[in-house]
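ERR on first pass: missing label on line 2. Operator R.T. fixed the label and resubmitted. Corrected input:
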Amino acid sequence: KQEVTQIPAALSVPEGENLVLNCSFTDSAIYNLQWFRQDPGKGLTSLLLIQSSQREQTSGRLNASLDKSSGRSTLYIAASQPGDSATYLCAVRWGVAGGTSYGKLTFGQGTILTVHP
Amino acid sequence: DTGVSQDPRHKITKRGQNVTFRCDPISEHNRLYWYRQTLGQGPEFLTYFQNEAQLEKSRLLSDRFSAERPKGSFSTLEIQRTEQGDSAMYLCASSSTPYGGRGPSTGELFFGEGSRLTVL
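pass 2 clean. output:
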């Protein structure tokens, strides 16, 4: 079964700290992986997308890595700020043999991040 | 571009009533997805369309649920005879296939703000 797991479920850090959020997936045959941010009661905001051929993507203070062989992705947040407090979701689009796969994403349950001043 | 828009943002209904949600995707996107999210959980896939064709439906989509995208633009999700267990956030997303939009695409999904359903 193709599943996505995120650990930890919740994380609380002081402002300024660098932190890592983890995402693991059960099938290494992924097409791409996308990280999202969700504020309470809101929709999802796309942060980074990593194609299966890539090892990492960077946007500002965010860096996402992908290791297909170990079934893991990490989201690194540098110099955290209270405004980073949100739920972070990892989602995988699985590959299909012989073609592109722009089908559904399978989500993890998310990591609730709290950055306190 | 205004992004993905969903309407209504909030809906409170009594058990047994029918409800309909609307999603307007990003204009150049040919794929449209519906997800459901309950408190503390990640979004769960319901169904998706490529243009007007419904390509995949989840087992979560019972006979009371129906989704349409008649002209390949906006989509509606209808829930008939609502139950308390249907209370959730209903999220819509859109994307492009590699050359289905106005040029090459990574397939990145963009979500709307969601429609929150409360069934009393």
